[in-house]
Design a protein that fits this description.
This protein has 419 residues and is α+β, with helices and mostly antiparallel strands. It folds into 2 domains: 204 residues, Alpha-beta prism (UDP-n-acetylglucosamine1-carboxyvinyl-transferase, Chain), CATH 3.65.10.10; 203 residues, Enolpyruvate transferase domain (UDP-n-acetylglucosamine1-carboxyvinyl-transferase, Chain, Alpha-beta prism), CATH 3.65.10.10. It is 31% helix and 26% strand. The strands form 6 sheets. A 4-stranded mixed sheet has the order 21-22-1-23. β11 and β12 form a beta hairpin. α1 runs parallel beside α4 and α6 packs parallel to α7. The structure holds ligand EPZ. The site of ligand EPZ has 23 residues, from α1, α5, α6 and α12.
Length: 419
C-alpha cells in the first residue's frame, strides 16, 4: 500500500503542465477496437486506468504499447470479444468496450461494471440503447453476453438522462452499424466532442457531437489515425483548487478554459483572480477565500460533478457558508468525513453539503475512498497545519499522473511512501 505524506502550509507557485484527459483517453482507447489500422494517441496520461485499458486491448488481441504519453494500438488482429472479469472489475469505465466490440465484431461478453465508491453504477441506458440497435443481451451470473443475430443497425435513441458513458457506447457501436443513428439528449461533455472528432479522424461519419443531438451514419470500416487527447479539465480544476487553498498562484499550461466555463467563475467568486489564454490558465489566490453561495453539479455545460470534491476542499477554508448540491451521483460525499477529521466544518443531508469555512485545517491520517475525493484530501493536506497522510493512493493514481511530483514542483512538501 502507498500513502502520500504532506507537510502543509506551503504556498504553491510556478508553472504546471496539465495532463491529457483521463475521461477522453479511456473511450478513445476503446474506440481503437473499431479501427483496422494502427492508431497513435498522443498526450495520453500515464494513469493506472489507461494501463488497464491497454491490458484489455491486449487481451482482445489488439497490440497496444504505451511509451512516453503516447499509445499505439493495432486492432487489425482482434481475436477475442470477451473482456476478462478481473480487468472489468479493475475499472468500471471499461463498459465502453461494449459498444466498440459490438461495432467491430457484433458480439461481446463482459461482466457488469458494478457499483462502488460513487454509489450504484447502473448501465440501463447503455443496454436499452444497444437493444434498440439490434443487440440481444443475456445476463448470466453478472456476465453480459451480447450478440447481434440480425446485425447491428442504426436507431433513433432518446436518452432519459444525458449519460456520458451511454452516449459514448452508442457512438462507438453506431460508427460501424448499418444505417443511421441519432442520439437525442446526448451528453455534451468535451470528452464526447473529443471522441466524435477521433472517430471522424478514423473515417467515421458523425456530426453534432458536443451538442444534445448526435447523428452517426454507419460506415463499413475505420482506418487508423494519429490523434491528440484533449487536456484534462478536472485535473486543471484540481490544481486551481490547490492554488486557492495555499494562497498561491499557478500558471497552468495545456489547460483549455473553454471547457471550464462553469468552473472558473466559482474560483472567481471565491476571490481568486483567473486569467485565461488560448491554452493556459493563470490563477492568483493571494486574497483570503470567500464562501460561494451555491455550487450545483450538473451535466455539461453545468458545474462538473468530478470537480465537486476538490472545490469543496477549497471551500472548507473560505470565509462564510457555502452550499454544494451533488445532483449526478448519489454517494459522492465520502471525502466529507475525512475532511472533517482535518478540522473542516461540513454537514451533509442527502444531495446537499453545507460547508462553514474554518480558520485552520489540521494534518491527520486520512483515507481516500475514490479518485476525486482522494485528490480533495491531498489538497486539504497542502493547507493543513502539520503533517497529513493520505492512504489508498491507488485511487488517486487512477486519474492523476504523478500528483506528488506536480505539486512538489510547485512548492509543496509531499512525498509518496510505500508501506
Ligand atoms: C463519466 O462516468 C465519467 N467517467 C465520470 O468521471 C463522471 O463523473 C461522469 O461521466 C459524469 O460526468 C468516465 O468518463 C470514465 P454517466 P459515467 O453515465 O459515464 C446514471 C471521474 O472521477 N446512469 O454520465 O459513468 C449514473 O448512475 C469519473 O473521472 C444511469 O442511471 O457517468 C449517474 O448517476 C467518476 N443509467 C448518472 O447517470 C445508465 O445507464 C451519470 O452517469 C448510465 C448512467
Amino acid at each position: 500500500m502507498q500513502k502520500l505524506v504532506i507537510r502543509g502550509e506551503k504556498r504553491l507557485s510556478g508553472e504546471m503542465t496539465v495532463q491529457g484527459a483521463k475521461n477522453s483517453a479511456l473511450p478513445l482507447l476503446a474506440g481503437c477496437v473499431l479501427c483496422s489500422g494502427e492508431v497513435t494517441l498522443k498526450n495520453c496520461p500515464s494513469l493506472s486506468d489507461v494501463f488497464a485499458s491497454c491490458r484489455i486491448l491486449n487481451c482482445l488481441g489488439c497490440k497496444s504499447r504505451y511509451h512516453d504519453h503516447c499509445v499505439t494500438v493495432n486492432a487489425s488482429a482482434l481475436s477475442e470479444c470477451a473482456v476478462p472479469e478481473d480487468l472489468m472489475r479493475e475499472m468500471r469505465s471499461s463498459i465502453v468496450f461494449l459498444g466498440a466490440l459490438l461495432g467491430r465484431a457484433g458480439e461481446c461478453e463482459l461482466s457488469f461494471p458494478g457499483g462502488c465508491e460513487l454509489g450504484p453504477r447502473p448501465i440501463d441506458m447503455h443496454l436499452g440503447a444497444l437493444a434498440q440497435m439490434g443487440v440481444q443481451i443475456n445476463e448470466e451470473f453478472g456476465v453480459l453476453c451480447c450478440r447481434c443475430p440480425h446485425g447491428l443497425h442504426g436507431a433513433k435513441i432518446s436518452l432519459s438522462f444525458p449519460s456520458v458513458g451511454a452516449t459514448e457506447n452508442i457512438m462507438l457501436a453506431a460508427a460501424l452499424a448499418k444505417g443511421d443513428t441519432v442520439i437525442y439528449n446526448a451528453a455534451r461533455e468535451p470528452e464526447i466532442t473529443d471522441l466524435g472528432d477521433f472517430l471522424c479522424s478514423c473515417g467515421a461519419r458523425i456530426s453534432g457531437h458536443g451538442t444534445s443531438t448526435v447523428a452517426i451514419s454507419g460506415v463499413s470500416s475505420l482506418h487508423g489515425c494519429e490523434y491528440e487527447v484533449m487536456p484534462d479539465r478536472i485535473a486543471a480544476a484540481t490544481y486551481m483548487s490547490a492554488a486557492a487553498l495555499t494562497g498561491g498562484e499557478l500558471d497552468l499550461k495545456n489547460a483549455r478554459a473553454c471547457d471550464m466555463q462553469a468552473v472558473i467563475p466559482v474560483f472567481e467568486q471565491m476571490g481568486c483572480q483567473v486569467f485565461t489564454y488560448e491554452n493556459r490558465i493563470f490563477i492568483n489566490c493571494k486574497r483570503p477565500l470567500k464562501a460561494v453561495r451555491t455550487v450545483r453539479t450538473m451535466p455539461y455545460p453545468g458545474f462538473p460533478t468530478d470537480a465537486q470534491a476538490v472545490v469543496m476542499a477549497a471551500l472548507t477554508r473560505a470565509r462564510g457558508t457555502s452550499v454544494i448540491v451533488e445532483n449526478i451521483f448519489c454517494s459522492r460525499y465520502r471525502h466529507v468525513d475525512e475532511l472533517v477529521r482535518m478540522g473542516a466544518d461540513i454537514k451533509t443531508e442527502g444531495k446537499v453539503a453545507v460547508v462553514e469555512g474554518v480558520k485552520r485545517l489540521y494534518g491527520a491520517r486520512v483515507r481516500a475512498a475514490d479518485l476525486r475525493g482522494g485528490a480533495a484530501l491531498v489538497l486539504a493536506g497542502l493547507a493543513a497545519q502539520g503533517e497529513t497522510e493520505v492512504e489508498n493512493v491507488c485511487y488517486i493514481d487512477r486519474g492523476y499522473e504523478n500528483i506528488e511530483k506536480c505539486l512538489r514542483d510547485a512548492g509543496a512538501s509531499i512525498v509518496r511512501v510505500t508501506e
